[in-house]
Design a protein that fits this description.
Strand content: 15-25%
Strand order of the largest sheet: 6-3-2-1-7-10-12-13
Number of strands: 13
Structural class: alpha/beta
Number of domains: 1
Largest sheet: 8 strands, mixed
Number of helices: 5
CATH superfamily: NagB/RpiA/CoA transferase-like
Distance between the termini: 21 Å
CATH topology: Rossmann fold
Length: 189
C-alpha cells in the first residue's frame, strides 16, 4: 500500500475518535507503561510532546517529573533531518515550531547524549506486531534509531495496529508496543 495514502487513512480513522475515547485510551496506555519494569528502572525517558490524535504524552512527562526521572524531548534539525534530545524540566521550556509541534528551546534546556537515554518512546501513525512503523514522513526517527542502542517502545491506539505496514530496507522496528488493550513484545522475524 502507498505510504501517503495509508497516512491519510490513519489520520482520518483517528479523527473519528471521541474526546472521551481519546482520554480513556491514553490513560489506559499510560497505566500499562507505568507498570513496566522498563519504566520503573529508567532514569532517563525520551518522549515526544504529543498533539491530538497521538497518544497523550503530556501526562507521561508530568509523571516522569513526579518520579524524579530525567525527561528528554527531541529537537528536529530540518537541514539534515537529524534529532537531538534536550532535558525538559518545565513545559515553559518548549517552543512552537513547524506544523504546531512543540520542541525544546535549546537556549533554555540542556543537551542529553543518546547513550544516557534508558528508554526511547517512538511515535508513529501505524504499526504492525513485528514493531515496524509508519512514521509521519520526516525520517527523523529512522535516522536516530540507526545509532540508538537502548530499549524502544511505542504507544498507540489499537486501531493503529495493522497486519502489516509498508517498510523500506532501512526501517528498524521498535521492541515493544503498548495499546489500550495489551502489550506486544515485537519480533522482526
Amino acid at each position: 500500500m502507498n505510504k501517503q495514502l495509508l497516512r491519510q487513512q490513519m489520520k482520518e480513522s483517528l479523527a473519528k475518535m471521541t474526546t472521551l475515547e481519546y482520554e480513556q485510551y491514553s490513560f489506559q496506555i499510560a497505566q500499562q507503561l507505568f507498570s513496566l519494569p522498563l519504566w520503573q528502572r529508567a532514569e532517563t525517558i525520551a518522549v515526544t510532546v504529543s498533539r491530538v490524535p497521538e497518544v497523550d504524552t503530556w501526562s507521561l512527562i508530568t509523571r516522569g517529573w513526579e518520579e524524579g526521572k530525567k525527561v528528554v524531548v527531541p529537537k528536529c534539525n530540518p537541514a539534515d533531518r537529524s534529532m537531538d534530545y534536550y532535558q525538559l524540566t518545565s513545559f515553559c521550556e518548549l517552543e512552537t515550531v513547524y506544523s504546531g509541534l512543540y520542541e525544546p528551546d535549546p537556549l533554555r534546556t540542556a543537551y542529553v547524549e543518546p547513550k544516557e537515554i534508558d528508554v526511547l518512546l517512538v511515535p508513529g501513525l501505524a504499526f504492525d506486531q513485528r514493531g515496524y512503523r509508519l512514521g509521519f514522513g520526516g525520517g527523523y526517527f529512522d535516522r536516530f534509531l540507526e545509532h540508538f542502542q537502548g530499549p524502544t517502545l511505542a504507544l498507540l491506539f489499537s486501531q493503529q495496529l495493522l497486519a502489516e505496514v509498508p517498510r523500506e530496507a532501512y526501517d528498524l522496528p521498535v521492541q515493544q508496543l503498548i495499546t489500550e488493550r495489551q502489550l506486544y513484545n515485537c519480533s522482526s522475524e
